[in-house]
Amino acid sequence: MKKSTATKKPKQDLNLRQRPLATPTDLDGAAAGDIAGAMNTILADVFALYMKTKNFHWHMSGPHFRDYHLLLDEQGEQLFAMTDPIAERIRKLGGPTLKSIGHISRSQRILDNDADYVEPLDMLAELREDNKTLASRLREAHNVCEEHRDIATASLIEVWIDETERRTWFLFEASRHGDPTGH
């Protein structure tokens, strides 16, 4: 009798077939869920702040138009660049990400500004406060990651906190009132 040379296929986990987006991770389910939930809320806030930054960029006016317009364009690009790594980190943990503008709207904590006109310095002040709020919320998410020993997400958050603090700093300095010599 001839022995079969075919190798046996490993038995697939039935749970993975029933939950096709359940990416394997060494974190337990509760930890992965806590971190994914915290990061989805951060993702919604980043999208909301991105949109507000671009809104103010598009509607900037006044004697400092060029400087403010370029500053907000740069900051908008930085915010948008955060979105894919945040979403992919959520997926690496096996969590689902935001799926629509409506989902963002329901999850965001950064308030929209739909006013027809906002004074340029008020735009900068509002964005400065929103960035300070985002930094605080990133720290909260970092605490969740530390609690569950998720070093990878925590290290990404540390970079985003630094970038957010830089945006806050630039918005603060750009909105300061100078003396007649410009200082």
In brief:
The protein is built from six helices and no strands.
Note down, in words, how this protein is organized.
Helix content is 67%, strand content 0%. It is mainly α. The chain has a single domain, classed as Ferritin, core subunit, four-helix bundle (Ferritin, Up-down Bundle).
Provide the CATH topology. Answer: Ferritin
- Overall tally of structural domains: 1
Shape: elongated
User: What is the average per-residue confidence, as pLDDT, rounded to a whole number?
Assistant: 90
The N- and C-terminal alpha carbons lie at a distance of: 94 Å
Name given to the CATH architecture = Up-down Bundle
CATH superfamily membership, which one? Answer: Ferritin, core subunit, four-helix bundle
Main sheet overview: none
Number of helices: 6
What does the radius of gyration come to? Answer: 22 Å
Instruction: Please state roughly what percent of the residues sit in beta strands, choosing from under 5%, 5-15%, 15-25%, 25-35%, 35-45% or over 45%.
Output: under 5%
What is the N-to-C order of secondary-structure elements (H for helix, E for strand)?
A: HHHHHH
CATH top-level class: Mainly Alpha
Tally of strands = 0
Stretches with pLDDT under 50, minimum 5 residues: none
